[in-house]
Write a structure and sequence with these properties.
With 317 residues, this protein is α/β, with parallel strands linked by helices. It folds into 2 domains: 3-143, Conserved hypothetical protein from pyrococcus furiosus pfu- 392566-001, ParB domain (Alpha-Beta Complex); 210-293, no CATH class. 52% of the residues lie in helices and 14% in strands. It is built from 16 helices and 7 strands. A 5-stranded mixed sheet has the order 1-5-3-4-2, with helices on both faces. It has a two-stranded antiparallel ribbon with strand order 6-7. A hairpin with a 2-residue loop joins β3 and β4. The radius of gyration is 23 Å and the shape is globular. The protein starts with a helix and ends in a 9-residue tail after the last helix. Residues 1-12, 14-27, 29-45 and 246-257 have low confidence and may be disordered.
């Protein structure tokens, strides 16, 4: 993989919109914070300075929460140094004289606070689908989304546009397991999602209590007592099996039939789907083992072939 293709945002845009001079020009502008010669040459309207009141927010923008402190800090920086990075926009389908923000709503909001009348914009002709895809990739790769926003963005890509979890993972530069685990957060009840979105609990806490009978009650307990993720896992084990004291939970993952946290179970399922074998992950503390079960000698031969790999090459998992 070349240096150009390995850059975070570029890899995501390439996966969803395709490689080429046009996509590369947009990446260059977004990476370096300034329009490049290739932008003007290949992207039609290219980078232009537009009146700020001609821009509109995207109602499908995956990011919903903009903290006051972040906006004020960025507004001050823009007031001092100007807006160094152009905002990615597209002409509004129903009114080409106006523009919809594809990526950069936070910069647009901060520019308004900084009392700018004009802002540099990178103009692209994008469909509704491409607009949402680019907005999701840009936000996820910049870590601008909270876990709930990220999960909902992934769900839009998989359900609305038919991308596989593998497609999404490649686009946003995350692992497939991360995408799968993030999507599973949406199965939690709304009170837990509200706490997660507000930053009162972490995604680790949410996954730890996801399999409990009443995750909302446990989430409140975790928040009020300031419990660690490990302590939340212990609470979940005790809620699932009241006869098992929470303090003994740290030992339960070391056995094949004991409680396993949601991430471990998800990883087992993911590996099983990839390999076509039963997978058993057992861990204690920072160490553990992965067991692969085969049912015939052909599967054993296949395991040996994959582990050996081509001479001088990578293992074929």
């Amino acid at each position: 993989m070349s240096v150009e293709r390995s850059r975070g945002l570029g890899r995501g845009l390439s996966a969803l919109l395709g490689e080429g001079a046009d996509a590369e020009a947009m990446r260059d502008s977004m990476d370096h914070g300034e329009p490049s010669a290739r932008t003007s040459e290949h992207s039609g309207a290219g980078v232009r300075v537009l009146p700020i009141d001609l821009l509109e927010a995207n109602p499908d923008q995956p990011r919903r929460i903009f903290t006051e402190s972040e906006l004020e800090e960025l507004a001050q920086s823009i007031a001092d140094k100007g807006l160094l990075q152009p905002i990615l926009v597209r002409p509004l389908p129903k009114d080409p004289s106006r523009y919809q923000i594809v990526a950069g709503e936070r910069r647009w909001r901060a520019s308004q606070r900084a009392h700018l009348h004009e802002v540099p914009c990178l103009i692209r002709e994008l469909t509704d689908r491409e607009t949402l895809e680019v907005a999701i990739v840009e936000n996820v790769q910049r870590s601008d989304l909270n876990p709930v926003e990220e999960a909902r963005a992934f769900r839009q890509l998989t359900e609305r546009f038919g991308h596989t979890q593998e497609d999404v993972a490649k686009a946003v530069g995350k692992s497939r397991v991360h995408v799968a685990n993030t999507l599973r957060l949406l199965a939690l009840p709304d009170p837990v999602l509200d706490m997660l979105q507000a930053g009162k609990i972490t995604a680790g806490h949410a996954r730890a209590i996801a399999s409990a009978p009443d995750p909302a009650a446990l989430a409140v307990q975790v928040m009020e007592q300031g419990l660690s993720v490990r302590a939340a896992e212990a609470l979940a084990r005790e809620a699932i099996n009241p006869k098992t004291p929470a303090v003994n939970g740290a030992r339960s993952n070391s056995g094949g039939g004991g409680y396993k946290d949601a991430d471990t179970r998800a990883l087992e399922v993911d590996l099983a789907e990839r390999l076509g074998l039963d997978i058993d992950i057992r861990h204690k503390g920072e160490a553990g083992e992965v067991r692969l079960r085969y049912t015939n000698l052909e599967q054993l031969d296949d395991i040996c072939r994959r582990l050996s790999g081509p001479q001088g090459g990578a293992i074929e998992f």
